[in-house]
Every structure is written in C-alpha cells, then in structure tokens.
C-alpha cells in the first residue's frame, strides 16, 4: 500500500538487525488519516470473505482493527487481553504468546461470549514478525470453533518467519507493507508485494 | 449521550458495589457503530478548543481516542504506554498511575517527540473512576509544556472521586455517561448529566 510504504520510508527507522520502528505513525503516535486508509485497504481485501467480526490483541492492534471493522460496515471488534483483571469472566479462552519485542511470554485471553461459535473471524494486527500473536489468536478461534477467514497485517517483517509459516499453513494473509530486510541501518521494503 | 446510556442499561452489568462492566461494547468487544457515535459527540463538545492531538493511555482508551480524533478532522492520537519495551526512546516522559482495577501501580510513558511543546491536548479515556489515569496524563502534558484543553470520557463512575477532583481543579471535563451508583446489583445512571 503506497501511503504506508511512503510513511515507513519517510518516518520509520531501524534499530540493530531486526527492529523496525514505526512509533511515529502506527504504534505510539497514530496517524489517523493513514490508519483509516489502511483499514479501507484491508476491508477491500477481505470483504468477500464476509467476516462477522475483527479479532486483534491489545494494545497497538486496536486502531487498525477498528478502522478495518468500520470500513467493513461497522462490524464488531474483539481485542484479546494480556492482563488478568479483577473483572474477568469465568468462561475465558486463552493461548500463550511469546513476544520478541518484550522478551516474555504472555497469555492472551478472550471472553468466550465474544467469539460466538461459527463466527467468521478476520484477524488484524499492526505487525507480523514471528507470527506468535497471530498463531495465538488462531488458537483462540480454534477453541471457540470460529473459522479464520483471513489475516490482515499492517507491517510484515519479511525476514522473520511469521509470514512464511502462516502462508504455508494455507492462511489467507495480506500485509499492507513487507520489510524485506534491514541493510546498513536502513529499512528495505519488498516491492513485489 | 442517549445511545451509550441505552447500551449501559441493556448490556452493562455491575459487580460488587463499585465495578461497572461494559466489556460487551466498550473495552473488550467494541461496538464499532457506538464508538464512532461517541467519538462524534466528544468531538462536537471539544471542537472549539481546537485540540492539536488526542492523548490516551493503552489499551482500552485507544478506540474512543481514535474515533474522536477522526471526527475532529483526523488529528493525531498519542497513546501513553504502560510497558517498557526494548525499543524505547531515550527521551521519555513518565508518570505513575495506580489502577484500582488491576490493583497495582503502573508507570505510563510517552516519547517526548510526540507531545511537542505547546500542543493543545485533548485527553480521552473510556473510563473515569478515581481519576488516576487522567491525572497521570495531565502530568505528562505538564512535563511536555502542553496545555490540556479538555478531558473527554466515555463512562464516568460518579460515585468515585475522579470527576469531582478534576472539575474542582478547573478542568473542562465531559463524560458521555455518568454512573450515579450501583444499587442492588443494578447500575443507576445519572440523568441530569
């Protein structure tokens, strides 16, 4: 998606050999205009799959999930939670997710009522790296007996394994931008996406 | 705001004497249509204050912040973070916030670049209880030398101290719905809001 690619080239930065920083517009400060365009693009890609709801994981997936759900005709969003709150329901589905960014394992949890059996789920997240979050959300959907009709991603780190794993598993995965590699401290985007 | 009041009456529930659960439409599952209407209402309330950006705190404030920012003409959103990631900038502003829900103290952090000095900030959050999160965000703005032009809230728990404290401090606070009390396990909304 051209606007996202331009934002990454203009405002993104690399750290070390594998960290892609897009804090400025995607996951700390949000470029509202861009987020809505990204949501429209994901909605256009997955509209024919007729999703009933968008599933994401807190926190930075929420914005793109919401704009995608809006462009799909205001379908609901469900965001999996990482923390066990004192107001937790008793009927909770959970999956474990290792975060390479935070270097720890989180459980992600969804109240079962919000993934009604048979719902057609579109998974959306801002980032795809090793695919741990997406696999965790797929596990939640399997437990809830909900088909995953697609996975829509903002930025895929093409040099990590997530995209490959998900495509090989037959998932309908679409990423708005794919980082091919980090070269001399510079982000190189994949053009043939 | 009538649609929100109806959603709370229909889908909200109380736990104990002080927990208001709106998981079904506001902070776990998101009613996308309602979130956009809430954003329009907050935008209408604060438009004349000419905010430059919306500040919220992850995770459940993000959706309402984004729809408010959209209705204000797609101004940016900045969300304060609760966790120290490995990709943290060095120039970070922070404030401590006690969460009555999670029964712990969190630091909230914002990269100073995303609160440029002099920016007119509209603080938005899904909930207002004891006001700790709002006070933490106000502290971030003070440190960044940004005026807070208003505070827009989804659901205020009117029987806790946050609203009173902020209004007495002279803040321009508007809550879309105010829970007056929990009575016999039932949520009673304040009508004169």
What is the secondary structure topology, with strand pairs?
2 copies of one chain form a homodimer.
Chain A: H1 2-11, E1 13-15, E2 19-21, H2 23-27, E3 29-30, H3 32-46, E4 53-57, H4 62-71, E5 77-80, E6 92-99, E7 104-111, E8 121-128, H5 132-144, E9 148-157, H6 162-168, E10 173-183, E11 186-189
Parallel strand pairs in A: 4-5, 4-8, 8-9, 9-10
Antiparallel strand pairs in A: 1-2, 6-7, 10-11
Helix pairs in contact in A: 3-4
Give a quick rundown of the structure.
2 copies of one chain form a homodimer. Chain A has 193 residues and is an alpha/beta fold.
Write a concise keyword list for the protein shown above:
Rossmann fold, 6-stranded mixed β-sheet, 193 residues, alpha/beta, 11 strands, two-stranded antiparallel sheet, homodimer
Question: Please, could you describe this protein's structure?
Answer:
2 copies of one chain form a homodimer. Chain A has helices spanning 2-11, 23-27, 32-46, 62-71, 132-144, 162-168, and strands at residues 13-15, 19-21, 29-30, 53-57, 77-80, 92-99, 104-111, 121-128, 148-157, 173-183, 186-189. Chain A has a single domain (2-79, 114-189), classed as 3-Layer(aba) Sandwich (Rossmann fold). Chain A has 193 residues and is an alpha/beta fold. The mean pLDDT of chain A is 94. The A-B interface holds A 15, 19, 21, 23-24, 28-33, 35-36, 58-60, 62-63, 66-67, 69-70, 74-79, 81, 83, 85-87, 89, 101-103, 110-111, 113-114 and B 15, 19, 21, 23-24, 28-33, 35-36, 58-60, 62-63, 66-67, 69-70, 74-79, 81, 83, 85-87, 89, 101-103, 110-111, 113-114. Strand 3 (29-30) of chain A pairs antiparallel with strand 5 of chain B, so a sheet runs across the interface.
């Amino acid at each position: 998606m051209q606007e996202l690619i331009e934002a990454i080239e203009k405002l993104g930065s690399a750290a070390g050999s594998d960290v892609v920083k897009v804090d400025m517009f995607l996951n700390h400060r949000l470029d509202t205009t861009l987020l809505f365009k990204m949501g429209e693009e994901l909605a256009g890609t997955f509209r024919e799959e007729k999703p009933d709801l968008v599933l994401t994981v807190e926190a930075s997936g929420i914005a793109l999930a919401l704009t995608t759900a809006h462009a799909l005709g205001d379908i609901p969003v469900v965001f999996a939670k990482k923390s066990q709150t004192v107001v937790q329901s008793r009927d909770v589905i959970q999956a474990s997710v290792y975060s390479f960014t935070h270097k720890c394992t989180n459980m992600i949890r969804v109240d079962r009522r919000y993934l009604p059996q048979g719902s057609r789920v579109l998974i959306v997240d801002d980032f795809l790296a090793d695919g741990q979050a997406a696999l965790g959300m797929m596990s939640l959907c399997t437990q809830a007996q909900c088909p995953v009709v697609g996975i829509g991603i903002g930025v895929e780190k093409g040099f990590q394994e997530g995209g490959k794993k998900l495509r090989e598993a037959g998932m309908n995965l679409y990423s708005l931008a794919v980082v091919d590699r980090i070269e001399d401290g510079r982000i190189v985007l994949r053009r043939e996406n």
